[in-house]
């Protein structure tokens, strides 16, 4: 309309909107607490020239953001969703999520990326076979779901687990733990490929959760998608100059993402 708004006017509008949205944010929080499947993720975030963390808890229908100085359970506790949550939390293998006693499912695409890296950088042939296996299981799950069924035949599940465990054993045999210490103190450092194998061995049930429960997605793409817009905003506009500004923005974006 040819009129100009001052920065103070825009700031006041954002603050008033965030205050008005308090009941909506509470509703979103309660809805996420009761959801059967929940996505969790976090990414770096700049506030007052310091590195903070932007945490997200979301489903297909609801989104909740929180800017926090810590990438730890103190942040996820502050969101007040994972404490006491009784559904399935989908995330990467970050230890702060595994701290909670709910059912966990790991993003398989994260492991596909690591398997690609293991094959390309260290010529790990077992990694390629593991990628093929995981994608085969995913295709079988999708075909079974489209056929109107709720689970894979138990015989097929057992065969997939057997092949998974065999590939992990092959990988462990090709990557024995080191016996020589590289430093003067601490435990002997394991290689990156060995650490990947040990995680895949330890978290087999969490990685294959999508196979045993069709409610669990193959990826954590929902959380990554909800974080992408926030990262784009930061690339365009820069960091937040105040804690209050970051909190206001998280409130507004939680509402807008949910309504969208």
Textual characterization of the structure:
- The chain has 260 residues and is of the alpha/beta class.
- Helices cover 57% and strands 13% of the residues.
- The chain has a 5-stranded mixed beta sheet with strand order 3-2-1-4-5, sandwiched between helices.
- Helix 4 links the parallel strand 4 and strand 5.
- The longest helix is centred in the middle third of the chain and has 22 residues, at 125-146.
- The protein is globular, with a radius of gyration of 22 Å.
Low-confidence parts? none
Strand order of the largest sheet: 3-2-1-4-5
Shape: globular
Main sheet properties: 5 strands, mixed
Write down the oligomeric state. single chain
State which percent range the strand residues make up.
5-15%
Alpha-beta classification: alpha/beta
How many angstroms does the end-to-end distance come to?
26 Å
Mean pLDDT: 94
Number of DSSP-assigned strands: 5
Following the backbone from N to C, one meets helices and strands in this order, namely HHEEEHEHEHHHHHHHH
| Annotation field: number of helices | 12
